[in-house]
Each structure stands twice: as C-alpha cells, then as structure tokens.
Task: structure prediction
Amino acid sequence: MKTILKSVALVLCIVAFTSCNANTKKESNLAIAEHKVTDQPSKQFIKVALLLDTSNSMDGLIDQAKAQLWEIVNELSYAKCDDNKPNLQIALYEYGNDNLNGDEGYIRQVLAFSNDLDEISKQLFSLTTNGGNEYCGHVIQTSLNQLKWGSNADDLKLIFIAGNEPFTQGRVNYKTAAKLAHDKDVTINTIFCGDYNQGISGYWKDGADLAHGDYIAINHNIKTTYVATPFDDDILKLNQKLNNTYVAYGNYGKEKMALQREQDTNAESYSSANAVSRTVSKSSHLYLNSTWDLVDAQSDKNFSFDDLKESDLPAELKGKTKSEIKAYVTKKKQEREDIQKNIQDLNEKRRVYIQSQQKENDNGLESAMIKAIKTQAKAKKYKW
Result:
C-alpha cells in the first residue's frame, strides 16, 4: 500500500495541540536530525504518530496526502483551549515495504516526534513504495514502544494508521497492540483505503474500537479539490517577504533555510492553492524554527545572544557587536510579525470566500482526519 499517506501527515494531521487542564510537566522529545525539541513546561501537546503503508497500490492516496498536509495543519492551528493555543508534534513510520528489514517486521521509524514542519514535509515527500508484507499490529506496537509519549494525562495522544490489507497480518496481534495503547492512553484511528464494509471484515474497525478511536474508510483516488480565491496572489507575495525575515545561524542554518524553500517548492508543485495553504501554516504559531533561526531562537528562555560565536553568525552579522546583532534580530522579528498578521488577515477573508463556494469539505483524507481529531479533542476541552 503505497507511501500511502505520505503526507497523511499529516496529516496530519496531522495534528497536534495542547490541552486545557494542562499540567506543567516538562518533557524532552527527540527532534529532527540532530536537534532536540524542548517542550515548554506550560504547554501540553497532541502527539500524532502517522503509520503509513508504503507497499504497492496507492498513488492516489499519496498525492491526496501531500496536497492536503498544510490545510490539516492550518485547521489544527485554529484550535484553542481557553485562551491558549496548542502545540503540535508528529512522528512518522513506514511499514509494508520490501526494502525494509524483514526481521524487524518491514517497519522503519522515519521521524521521531517533531514540531519541525519543514522536516515533516520533507520526509513525507521522500517516501517511496515497494510491495511487501503489511503488519499493522507490529508497527503499532513498535511506535508505542519507541516513541516518547510521556505520562501527562492532559496530552492528546493519537495514532493514525493507514493501509488496505487485513489488519490481522504479522506475528504481533493487533489486540495486544491495542491493549498497550490503552495502557499508554493512546488512541488508535484506522484509515482503510477502500470499501467501508471490506475494512470492517478486515478488522480495521475492530482495531480502532479496541483503542477508543475512529474507523475511517476513504476513497483514496478522489482528487483534491481547490478553490482559488482573490487573495491567493497577495498571500504568495507575502510568503517571499516572510522568508526574508529568517536569520540563519549555527551549523544547520543554511541547510534548514534551503529546506524551507524546498518545501515551498514541493507545496507549489501541486497547485498555487496548496502553496497558499503552506504560507498560512508558516504564519501560524505551529511553525517554529528556533534551532536555526535567530528570530525564533530569541524567544526561547534558554537562548542568550552572549552564547553566540562568530562562526555561528550569517555573513550580514559577522563583526557586529552583541547589541547590533540583537537590534538587527529585533527588527526582523517585528517585520515578521507584521507580515504574519497580514497573511492571517487575508486568510480570514480567504476562508470566508472558500466557505461560500464550497459548502462541505469533500477532500477524503483531510476531512476524515480532522473530524476524528476534533471528536477526540472534545474530551480535552479544545474548541475551534
């Protein structure tokens, strides 16, 4: 089942925000590449693990997921818990691919829990497919054991597993995996790519029921529908200005800035409307890059301009005093906030326009995931 949901991610997803009755427990989670993400102690998370079948069969679903990633992220960015805006972390696994290690159940952790949206996008776009054995119980159990789910009862912890073969394959019984999920307070949502009743007979619904999740059957061959709006061009122009507010630093600065632009291009490869959706995501609180951008980094309580080395600085800041560097970064921060506000204002008009033209969201993967997330988030008292 193809890279299925390559971006289901996202799904996404994709997908994560904090809970209202937040505990102040601080957790440390693995981040992208060699970076680490430090959770803010006053925030909780929706942690989403995407388990994607990358065996042969689902080109349509892969495209659907890629095309809908940013709209899913945007929908999650509108969530509120009292006056707090939630955070998002996504992990990604692929399974069912002959190129993977058979002794390990044809399973690979592509990405541990991360809030780096560019890296998540990159990994989703990099998945390739190859026929194989699809062991649902095994990949669920693996994600439960490997990922740092934490013990905070206020976190919303979700697994989305997508595929189209029987849920019963492999050495690990899905019922055993479901019990482990229950013990860790993780909800399992199953996405069957095909006929609703066929998914039931293949035990996909039972897998979701046992772990208090939703069973979803979608037509993975539905093409993503877009509504062009009068505000799209202006939002895309603002994206270029937004990129110019990033001040890369450290060992990964140039590389991550290049990745940012690469994911802009990936989004635009589907449509200008998809590129607009990504720009809106970049203007939200979910798009954070403190590991390589000085503007985001200065808001981190553990960051100090005094710790910067000359070798860490971009060319435009080399030879500058600490006060000059701080003034430059502060100016860029104000520019960014102004641009992000303009994007958000235009997006509100864009959303109203789309709702007037498209009464219901008919994008299968996107609408199915968002519906499941919103239903399960009610228990944590999230609102949109």
